[in-house]
Design a protein that fits this description.
207 residues; alpha/beta; Barwin-like endoglucanases; nine-stranded mixed beta sheet; 5 helices; elongated; binds zinc ion
Length: 207
């Protein structure tokens, strides 16, 4: 049986963890485009139109939408997130991969080496991506200050308890630390539904 001291320490640890909680946001399926694919799909030199800022500084929702097509299914009006990237990347949920009929792996954003391709369409313009379809690995964007408070470092894998109507502990969450980030956890819609995520739902690191 735990000594009283150990119980007190555990309670203090949990209270501290909760005091360092962060907001959890759900990311819907979306596309990041490189210059070459913007040229192919929207025309040479086309500039994407910003309509809404995202929680991460410098990231934004574009007015333009796109079609993502696989051998089994198609998603229309998929959101494009700016700014443009060095390489195009399509982020979907695991449910979406079944609908598309493409078996995409869970990956951190940007790590698209060896991932399957997918077809992007804007009207009659088509770009056949050779790779870049991923199910985004759940992650926390953290400022260096928040990382220090939570005693975690860039790339660390943690467990996060997400509060709410279907409170859930997520394992295998990667922490990403940068002064360019705002502290938010990102999960996809499968994961958001699994924990009954609502606006303002918060989570905290438990391990
Ligand atoms: Zn994110």
């Amino acid at each position: 049986m735990d000594s009283l001291n150990e119980i007190v320490e555990e309670v203090v640890r949990r209270v501290q963890a909760q005091s360092h909680s962060f907001e959890v946001e759900a990311s819907g399926r979306h596309v990041h485009l490189c210059r070459k694919d913007i040229d192919i799909l929207f025309g040479e030199g086309y500039q994407l139109t910003k309509v809404k800022e995202l929680s991460q500084p410098g990231q934004f929702v574009c007015k333009e939408r796109i079609t993502v097509a696989g051998p089994k299914g198609v998603f229309q009006n998929v959101v494009i997130l700016g700014p443009e990237r060095a390489e195009s990347q399509v982020e979907v949920s695991m449910t979406d991969t079944r609908i598309l009929g493409i078996n995409a792996p869970v990956r951190e954003s940007g790590k698209t080496e060896g991932t399957p391709g997918v077809v992007l369409m804007n009207g009659a313009s088509v770009s056949n991506l050779k790779q870049g379809l991923i199910v985004a690995k759940r992650h926390i964007h953290m400022t260096p200050e928040h990382a220090q408070k939570n005693k975690v470092t860039n790339g660390q894998i943690v467990q996060v308890k997400v509060e709410g109507t279907r409170s859930l502990i997520f394992d295998d969450v990667v922490v990403r630390v940068s002064p360019k980030f705002a502290t938010y956890m990102h999960i996809d819609y499968d994961e958001a539904n699994a924990c009954g995520l609502g606006k303002g739902t918060r989570g905290y690191i438990i391990l």
